[in-house]
Structures are given as C-alpha cells and as structure tokens.
Request: fold
Amino acid sequence: MSRFRLARWWPLLVAGILGAQQPAPAARDRTSAVFNRYAPYVVKIQVIETGSGAKATLGSGFFVTPDGLVITNYHVVSKAITRPGRYRVELIDRAGQTIPVSIAAIDVVHDLSCLRSGSSGHPYFPLQPAGISQGSRLFSLGNPKDLGLGIVEGTYNGLLEHTLYPRIHLTASLNPGMSGGPTIDEAGNVIGVNVSTEGNQVSFLIPTDRVRALLQVARGLAASSPAPSLDTVAAQLRRHQAEYLQPIFAEPTQRLTLGPFQVVTQPAPFFRCWGDVLPAEGKPYEISTHRCQTDDDIYLDEDQTTGWLSVSYQLITTKQMNAMQFFSQYGKTFGADNSPAGIEAYVTNWQCSVHNVRSDRTRMRTMLCLRRYTGLGELYDMNLKAAVLGGSGVGLVATLNLTGVTFDNVTALSTRFLKQIAWR
Amino acid sequence: MALILELRDRHASTSWHRLTGVAVTLGRAFSNDLIVDDPHADGIHVRIEVDPSGGCTVTDLGSMNGTFVDGLRVTGPQAVRPGMEVVFGRSKVWIHDADEPVPPAVAETAQRLPAVARWTLTGTGSAMVAATVVAVSALMGWTGSTNRSTASDTITAAFVGLLFIGVWAGIWGAVTRGRDRRFRFRAHLAVVASVFLALAVVNAMSEWLQFYFPGVWIIGAVAAAIFYAAIGGVVVAHLSVAGSLTPRGRLYAGLGVCAAIGGLAFLGTLGNDKFTDVPRYSAQLKPVPGGFVFATPVDDFAAAIRETKAKADEAAAKAASATRQ
Reply:
C-alpha cells in the first residue's frame, strides 16, 4: 500500500483535472461557482533553495485570518524547518503576487503548519465547525505543479476508523501539488486539509479541528517569536509518543495461536493486521506470517518518516529437514532485514546487540538494534527480533519495530513484547 | 698422510683434489695442473707442494697481484697448514687433512617426521586425507542445506572442498619445485588438508561458543586471530615441505602473508562507519533444547540493552559534531 504525499516536485501527468469526472450540466455550474467564489482564498506555496533560487517543493495553502495567516501541510515546508538557512518559503496569491512568508507554528504529528504572510486584504476561511454527512459533495482546491489553481470534486466518506492520526476519507483524484489546499463544502466551510492520496480516487484530509488547534497556537505567538525548529519537532514527537504508546501490549487485546506458540496481535485499535503463508512448493519448509502495522506515519523528510509501529510473527515449520538444516534456515529468516528505512541526515547507523533471554518457559535468541535521531533529542528507532529456541522442526521469529520513541518506551515495550511470546 | 686441496673459484664453485706429493701449479694457463678461470690470476700464478713429512708449502711464482695466506702477502715459500686460507686473484684454496672427520649423513626429512605424518605421504594415506576433506565439506554442505534436494548442496560442497585443496596443493607444488624438480604434491596436500580441517573445527567451535555467549566479543576475535595465524602457518609449512628459503626466511614469509591478509581485513572494517540503514549482526541459531541455554531473565533485558543505547548516543553525538564542522 503506497501513499503519495501531495507536495511532490516530480513532473507528473495530470489528466484533465476538470474533465476527469463528467458531472451533469447543473452540477458543473455548481463547481464553477465554487471555484470562482473561493479561488482567491487559496495560494500556491513554494519552498526556494536560497543558493540557486530553485524551487524545492511546491504545494498549496489557504488564508484563515484577516491579517494573512495561511494554513498548509508540514511536509510542504519541512525543508525550511530542517535547514532554515538554505531554504525560504513564499506564497503566490490568486492575483499572481509573490509574498515571502515565515513559519509561525507547526504540528508535525498531524502534518500541518501555519505561515505568517503579514499581508492583509485577502479573503479567508473562518474555520467554524460544520456538519457533514456521508456521501456529501466536496470540492478540493489546490495548485498542481505549474498548472495553475485547480478544483476537484469529491465525495465525503467519513473519518477513517482505527487510525492513529485522524484522517477523512475523500473519494476524489487529488494530485501532488494540492497538498495543503482546502477541501470545502458548497457553502464554503473547510472540512479538511488535503494531505495525501493512494491513487484510484482514494485521498485523505486532515480534519479541521486540528487546524483550529494549530491556529490557536499561532495566534498566541507574536510576529517576532522565533520560528519553529527541529527542537519544536523533537518536543512534539516526544509528547506524542508518550501518549499513544501507553496501552500497547499492556493489556493484551487479542491472542493469536501460531503453531505451538501463543502471541498477542492487534496491540491497539489503530493497528491493521493481516496474515499470509509463503507457498511451500520447492521448499522443504513453510513460513506463515502474521503482521500488524499502524496505518499512517509522521513525515519528517522525503525519505524519512517516524511515529509508526509494526509487529510481525513468522512461524517456520518443516517436516523434511533435520535439526541442523532447519536451524540453518531459521537463522536466515531470523537474519532477514525488516528494519525501518532511514537516511543519514536524520538517523545514525544501527547499533545491535544479541542476547539469550528467558521468559517463563520460553527461551529466545533476541537481537535488539537501536539507532538515535541526530538533532531531535533523545528519540530512537528500534528493531527487536526474537527467535524462540528449543523447538523441534518449528520456530517463531517475532519482530517489533518502533520509530521515534524515548528509551524508556524502548525498554518498556520491548520487555512487554518479549513477555507475551510463549509456548502454548 | 695425504692432503686434500679445496679450490673455490670466483664463481664460488668448489672442487677438491688429492695432493700426492708432487707439486701442483695453479693459474690461468692450460699448462697448469689446476686451471682457474680467473682474470685476476696470472698465467702461472702459484705452486703448492707437499714435502715427505706432510708439510705443505705455497710459493708465489712472480704474479702481478700476489698470493696471500691468511691475508698476508707471501714473498718466499710459505708453510700452509689445514685451516689457513690461501687467496690468489679471486680464487681461494684451503688445505685439508685426508683423515679429517666429516659429520654423519643427514636423514631425509620424511624419515624425521612422526609416523602419522609419514603415513599421509603414502598413496593410501593421502587418499584418506583427501577423503576426510571431502567428507567434512560434504557434511558442512549437508547441514547447511535449505533446499528441497539436499543432495545437490552436499555434492557441490564436497566437490568444492576437494577442488580447493587439490588446486592449492598443486599450485604450491608447482611454484616451489626448485632445483630438484620435485613436486611433493602429497606433502602439500597433507599440509593444506590438515589446516582446512583444523579451521573447520575452530569455526564450528566459535559458532557454538558465540551462540552460548552472545555478548562475548572476544570469542570472535580469538577465532579471527587463529584464522590469520593459520594462514601464515600454512605458508611456512608449504615452504618447509619444499625446502625453500632458510628457516628464518620462511618465518618472515609466513608473518608477511599473515600481516598482509590481516591488514586487508582491517581496512575492510574501516568502511563500517559509512551510513547504512541495514542492521549488522550475527543471526546464527543452533538446535539446542531450550533448557541448555544460559539466558538473561526478561526483566533484566532493559538493563542489558543500556550498553546499546550508549553506543547509539555516541554515534549520534559524532554525527552531530560532524555536521557542525
């Protein structure tokens, strides 16, 4: 399942935004009316590399106050936060005027940012709460790369269930570049902020209540307050992981039987779990996989995300191999890499240690790999693997991946995880 | 009492002649009794004669460059005894007593070895040695096979093992043939086979020890040290079998190869600092009943991983200071 952020700067095909759907003549008039009325509220956001003057990121945004505060995604302006000296942010309004902006406040966890343009006189969305029902018609505005302001019609399909980061499901063809733009109903109420798409008309919005919360913060800051930095990002990540990690593995939600083992699955409601079996043809062993992952993640940079968890179990069984051969394959499965990806700008190399651990009647070979984020305080990624020992023709490799967590949570969760792996 | 004349010419090639009481002349000319090919010697340079009492006299016959006994130039007839060195031109002469005792013959190398080693040099012995290597390779291939048909893995491993020691021994034999043109293939085969088997044992022991004691890095270090020492040792052993170089020369050759391989390995580890988002660890698992493994209680796991945290913190601090520069 791949999820595309909408602020990509690669050239892409935008197949007839306006012509993609063929509404009835009356409906088309409605769309035109919405577009004409609300286009001036929406701006194009550019992140410029100060050295070369080249555009590094393109996205969209919209005015929310009379004094020119603008809302967009965090991932649109993230480069200016991580390397403040090398990038600057500016917006281009409907009239074509380029206005430099500063970043007033950010919400890394919900992928939002509030920019200060200092330019008044633009129409703005007041962001009051609005009722909405499943199937309502919505309109998304934004700036696909260099093609000017566009509008896309879509259908509201409710808040996603079981996600860690709240998202509205919109059925519409949102395109990269429309990130940060508003999705509104016909009356001009902002229902959500465009954030990502999976293609095939499956797109996602950030609900407006998060935007209101961020705006509250931004309003409370003077224009001369220092811009948010990586320290702000670090503090938000730290606070966030302290909250959502509490219940995981603490009270077992569901038990799963895998061969002669019993493990915990669905550690919290916001995980999605699924299972698979590797075909046994041509191999003298069989591997059944069960995997749970949090659906969404927090964007830090183009190739670096954080704030997600995954749990996986691989049951290996054989009827043919002898003990030495089986453990040779068991070792290969244990050693297969399933750790989180990362880039040098954000994380260090993995530091790994291997231990033999016992818990009740179970003995496991555990491998814990830890890496720390550079410049984000004491936050770590963890890849913990346990291989249950002592089985005859059967083995279990259990993996827990944590991203963006404090060391206390690393120890707490890894201990809880290891404790719940047991023979039946 | 006869006397023997030892003549060493300017090419260091030596000949011995029996002095039978008649005088012998030495020089470049063909009319001499002993002809030397020495441009610094006169046509007729020196005369050596034995008197009835057994004494020996050297007389220079008017040469340009002179004749020297133990470094002193002779003017008239000079008495010479066994042990004194006579030099003319670039040639040297010594007188020996015919009854001088000589050390006994040296036994052939093979006969000085223990019985087991001698057996590996026989036809049956070397065949058994090769068979052992094949068997061990086959076993390693078989136990590591994760495919449906273990036969192909086993046979491949056996074949590779045999080929490796055969080619290795053959190359050593060919390269060190030396002047006596002897291949000594069986001896070289015995050497490489025994080192191969020894290293296989060390490797297996190291794997099992590392399985039982995962935190103890010294096990891996010792195994690596043994491996490098074995590489140096096998070089020394092959050179000894061939009789090449001097004992000290062989030792230096072995140390040199050991240091070179070890140095290369060390250079390889210098790349470990480069960034990668793939973890590096040993994933070896061994089939042992759970009860026989010493294990940390899970409640102590948190304390056990503090060291890993420290390493991660150190890496982050290094990266942060690197970007600051």
User: Anything to note?
Assistant: Chain B touches chain A through 53 residues (CB under 8 Å). The mean pLDDT of chain B is 88.
